[in-house]
Amino acid sequence: MENPFLGCHPTDPIPDPFLNQPKLFRFLRPPRKTTITPFLAQKSKQKQPLPTAAASLKLREHGGHLQQAITALEQGSPIRSRVYISLLQSCIDADSIEDGRRLHASLCAVQDCNPFVETKLVSMYAKCGSLEDARRVFAGMRERNLFTWSAMIGGYAREQRWGEVVDLFFGMMHEGVLPDTFLLPRILQACSNTGNLETGRLLHSLAVRIGLLDSSKEAHVSNSVLAMYAKCGELDSALRFFEKMDRRDRVSWNSIISGHCQCGGHEAALRLFARMRAEGIEPGVVTWNILISCYNQSSNPDLAMELMKQMESSGITPDVFTWTSMISGLAQNDRMNEALDLFQEMLLTGVEPNGMTVASAISACASLQALDNGKELHSYAIRIGCSHSILVGNSLIDMYAKCGRLEDAQRIFDEMAEKDVFTWNSMIGGYTRAGYCGKAYDLFSRMESSGVRRNVVTWNAMISGYIQNGDEDQAMELFHMMEIEGIRRNTATWNTLIAGSSQNGDPDQALRIFRQMRAFSVRPNSVTILSILPACTNLLSVLKVKEIHSCILHNDLQRDISIANALIDTYSKSGDIEYARVVFNGLSGRDLISWNSMIAGLVLHGRCHDARDLFNQMKQEGIRPNKAIFASVINACGLDGLVNEGKKVFSNMTEEYQLSPGLEHYTGMVNLLGRSGRLREASDLIDNMPIEPDAALWNALLTAARIYGNIRIANLAATHLFKLEPRNPETLRLLSHAQALYGKSNDASKVPRAKKEGSINESHGCCWMEVKPKVITFSTGSQVTMNSESKLAEINSRIMDTNEVIPDFDGTILEIEEDSEDIVGTHSEKLAVAFGLVNLPTFRAIRIVKSVRICTNCHTICKLISKLYKREILIKDPKSLHRFNDGTCSCRDYCQLL
User: Fold this and answer.
1) Does an H or E element contain 137, and which?
2) What confidence tier does 364 reach under pLDDT thresholds 50, 70, 90?
3) Above pLDDT 90, what percent of the chain?
4) 104, 99, 43, 108: which is closest to 79 by C-alpha?
5) Under 8 Å between Cβ of 530 and 563
6) How confident is the model at residue 823 (pLDDT cuts 50, 70, 90)?
7) b/e for 672-705, b at 16 or more Cβ within 10 A?
């Protein structure tokens, strides 16, 4: 049978008499028995005479001395119910449950026992904190009235056991007892705190039908209904009820404003606030605090601070909750110094902070690793008596741990009389961050035996600690143990593993975990995406990037500017600049990182003209470029050989934008000048630099000197390179090639010795290509099975017979000797290109990742193949990305010489 009352709405008739409820309630009274329950049994079946007036007065006098009165009762003195009730009230006032139990044991002395005595017993037990005793008395009562139910519901409400409050309400209705104006708000509060909108609507309907919302009644019932709708997120119903209220006091306005703040309607809350003042109701400190807290929680502490100033201007003095909200709001928005300044200002105004205020200030010190300030706050907490609170203790443990004072953190942990899960988590997290996973695991093991259940944050801290220390096996073991222990793994758990695998150089493992996360229907967040995208920044991952992009769209994360910026960067590095541009063009709001990622991506792919156009567009939109953008634009000018424009960009950086050039800018300028053969100018630039040149800068000068045959400058650059990187094989290789190409020099004798000492590796390395579902490895001289040997021979023959002329950077033409044994079968990249021509569809680009730099010969062969076969070839080596298309390379034939 369906419960007819649960479907009621405020306009529906109330089912009457509420006796046909099929729902089973937790607090139904037991079936009647033939004998009186011993709990309430009277001492004798024979009717005893009522105590004399003198005896009653004597007991009343003893009521002033509770112990003497109880002793008299225990000796068998009879007592009237009203005196007994006053003694129970004395137990409540003294919060003495033991005296209350002694009185309960003497219940048989009450000659005129009635439901009011039993109700007072229930109230005594409930108010003295023994709900189980109250429940036993309540369950044994034969007659329960409104006061009995109110006492029981009030006890559970004080303990914030809101689910039982709702159950009691249904039990009360089952017995035909209706709530009054005192009890109904408590039940509505239970619905608010449990989000029980259905029961809340039922209570609203009941209040309408029994007249508890009449204008003549107290307004607190209407305010409770309004607060219920607001806290349950039912703003439309809350607004309708609010507009129909005959009387709206400050509490009413606070409820509707708080409801909008809770649901994210900050602007609507401000409009209601203005309307409240316009209707002549001045907001009190609670109203101001609601708005200030709302804007702090919505990451807008500036507006919250402005509201606090308006509050003071209107004559309302901020209380401790106002200051605490502002301090914690600034700390939560990473404005730690301002939070500490505000704490000092609070002390100067004479407002004494509470534990929450001190804890927020200590947390700010923890984030700043400001140990001295943290120790001062610790002393202050001891002085005002809040150092032993769990909240302050947890903050102190976290602060000392983050400041590297694990001994102090452990001492506070050991001294805390009461510890919650946050206490344990703070201490475990401190040890894992410091790399002491063994000590963290000891605490982790002790935690369960101490009676505090480990939560998902505890497990995440341990997993993160093992990941950071490179122990992925132990991290994975804990990860699997979570399922066995019944701990639901949250998004942060998966994020920790994904980020750890990516940072530890295992992108494939990171991607497997990401896919497993989705298979478990765990919704990824922005941290997930930002952790997995770095694992896909190579040419073999473009399909994986698109898979992640699809996940971003599916979970509506594309509006996050940090995710969009990461996508632009990842698409660029994975070789798909067109998709990067699509993401960039789709941004409604671009920040500096968006522009930087897009410009750098265009330069990486050799689209330097587009990069310079985007740079000019950015300036036209009033966005001030930073150093990274200037470095990209200088490189773009260098690739296109625009010396004058590059020099102008370099000078504008310092003169117009007052930015000091860094090593990356000077390296770009040396490349720019070196490409155009201005070696003397490049050398002078290095001599006049205000900062010390690094290896990359000397490398750029050495490359330019090699190209233009300037052995003197080449040896000068090499000398400095040897000092900076004496064992770098790449440095030795560059000088060796320069001297071999241009003959002897004064320092020629150094080459053999340097070569021997540096152990130059002449290996041409290996490379990889993805042919779904496998990644194939190619190494120099290896034989890879082709689908057709005749196709391989056809590629060799076609290259030999071609009349195409493919010049290098310096204008030299590649000569292919007639007796060349196997043009496409020598170096690993040429093997991979040939394999791609045979096995990949013509519409798909050939994507190759190479372990060492591509040589000049292979570079030219790839240009030639791209033109002969009309195929796009992308090769990523440790130095740069080469995009071959129609006989040209995005590096302008220069990067392979670096």
Assistant:
1) helix 131-140
2) very high
3) 47
4) 108
5) yes
6) low
7) bbbbbebbebbbebbeeeeeebbbbbbbbbbbbb
Distance CA 569, CA 585 (A): 14
Give one DSSP letter per residue of 673-697, joined into a string: HHHTT-HHHHHHHHHT-SS---HHH
pLDDT at position 47? 44
- DSSP E strands, 19-152: none
Report the phi/psi class of residue 884: left, alpha or beta, with left for phi > 0 and alpha for psi in -120 to 50: beta
Place of tokens 């902070």: 353
Q: CA-to-CA distance for 289 and 322, rounded, in angstroms?
A: 6
User: 């050495």: which residue's tokens?
Assistant: 702
> Which residue ranges make up each domain of the chain?
766-897
Which tokens belong to 663? Answer: 């090593």
Report the C-alpha gap between 483 and 480 in whole angstroms. 6
The percent helix, strand, coil of the chain (3-state, each to 5) is 65, 5, 35
Dist. CA 522–CA 512, nearest whole Å = 14
Residue 406 Cα distances to 73, 495, 806, angstroms: 59, 27, 66
Quick one: 639 exposed, middle or buried, by C-beta within 10 A (0-12, 13-18, 19+)?
buried
**Omega within 30 of 0 (cis) for the link into 807:** no
Q: Is the predicted pLDDT of residue 32 greater than 70, yes or no?
A: no
Nearest 10 degrees: CA dihedral of 197, 202, 207, 210? 180
850: Cα separation from own chain's centroid: 36
- Contact present, 320 and 352 (Cβ < 8 Å): yes
- Residue 777 is classified by DSSP as E
DSSP string, 730-769: HHHHHHHHHHHHH---TTTTHHHHHHHHHT------EEEE
Distance CA 97, CA 259 (A): 39
Task: Output phi, psi for 874, to 5 deg.
Answer: -120, 125
Please tell me the predicted confidence (pLDDT) of residue 812. Answer: 52
pTM: 0.72
Q: What is the DSSP letter of 316?
A: P
